[in-house]
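Researcher: I'm preparing a figure for a lab meeting and need a structural model of a single chain. I don't have an experimental structure, so a prediction will have to do for now. The sequence is pasted below. Please return the structure as tokens so I can convert it later.
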Amino acid sequence: MLFNFFNRTYRTKCLWRAMAVSIALLLGACASTPDPELPEKEYYELAKEALKARNFSEAARHLESLETLYPFGVYAEQAQLDLIYAKYNGLDLEGAHAAADRFIRLHPQSPHVDYAYYVRGIASYNMDIGLAAQYFPMVDVTSRDPGEMRKSFGDFSQLVTRFPESKYAADAQQRMIEIRNRLAAYEIHAARYYIKREAFIAAANRAQEVVENYNGSPSVEDGLIIMVECYRQLGLNDYADDALAVLAANYPKSRAFDKNMHFKATEIEKQKRSLLNAVTFGTVGD
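Model: Understood. Here is the structure written out token by token.
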């Protein structure tokens, strides 16, 4: 009797387990069933409603379905533009960049292609800075290789050159100035890195890059100071004097001069102290 009781109990447990597995499989099959295809216009109307409600992920889903099922439909081009908008405002920067890139390739003559260049540039710009630097201004972004920033500059440059009357051109120009300043700041950061390692030729070359190619940037003054100091370290006094003359003519109130306009060498000393601080874990130096 006891054996039969346990045997019935075991069979009951097995039955419940089998039922549970069957229900799970059934639910999985239902979940994987694709949504029914909708008419093109219905996808577009659903996307518009989602955009109006600022539900950008839902809008993107409908627009992607429309693009997949009706790539040559009536709403195809507008849907691709709306997808760029939805991806960017949904903070999917890589998706926005990809959508803009696809639109530029498929519709190079579109009257709205300037918008695609603009968003592609903005997406690259924000991907390079990152959310940390956007929301926490104390984060130093000048030490990172600005690869995406260079791409952003290229997109804005094309926009301004090809579509000077575009409503996005003015903002693109301002962003190009900001990007140039950041690229120049990155070169100065690299120059100081080389100074710490007493690679004065490399440091002078990076500083010269700023002076020659980033005219008007706030970093030009730093570049000239670094050139003067590095050339003096290398015994290239004529080059140092030339850089000093340019510095005095353009930045007479530079921090590099005392009240009598005598040059004060500070960059190399400062970077050496910074390196000493790093290798001694903060016990010596700044």
